[in-house]
Amino acid sequence: MISRNLPVPSRLFLAAALVAILFASNAAQCLAQQLPTPVEPPGQNKALPDVPVPQPEATTGPGETSVQDPNTNAKQPKRILWIFPNYRAVSADTQLPPLSLREKFWLATQDSFDYSSFITTAMLAGISQAKNSYPEFGHHTAAYGRYYWHAQADLAVGNYLTEAIVPAVTHEDPRYYTLGHGGFFKRTGYAVSRLFITRTDFGGQTINISELFGNGAGAAISDAYYPSRERTWTKTGQKWVTQIGLDGAFNIVKEFWPDINRAIFHGKY
After folding, report:
1. pLDDT per residue as tens digits for the range 208-226
2. Does residue 32 lie in a domain region?
């Protein structure tokens, strides 16, 4: 039940987001039921969860071998310059198993409460205070504290909705898979397009309900802890668009970070 403490615009935002999420969830389940079951060629061994699967071996020296993790190349640095969380980024052309419910919530927790996320929040709070985005917060140090905890709350609410709660319902993969090749405009366009298109847990592609409607629900929920004069259609919509815009900017950074890291920092970060 939508809280009566929220104003009418916020309730409608939240209701619309919930309807879209439930609709997408039903569509994803129907699609999964319609997908054909892969048929394996005769004589091919089927890898069962409880059967050890041989791992590729990498030679380390004369007569020595070591087991190599097939997902090693998929991993990217957890942080960008120690400032921005980078837990969602996955290297180009990578095929990974779907995340479990627990893994999706852990991903949102890492993005929300890693020390780098607090640095990001500090930067966003400083920008908001410099712009005097919310005059009700006042000025000076006490005001910065108010900007800070509001920004951190926005970050956490948005992350849990877009990376855990909504993806769990709609069966979407919240990770960002880089393109990794092509020119600047092609890769930038791809990064922005991931705001609207994402992978599913079944390996296909779908509308990014988690990003679009998850952030819409987050903007509506945030009205519960913002000053009353900020709880309008315009203000709620601005928070929604701003959060999606920030996610798009971070997608672009994640897309080009491996190249920047190699070219400028020689892979140090």
Report:
1. 999 999 999 999 999 999 9
2. no
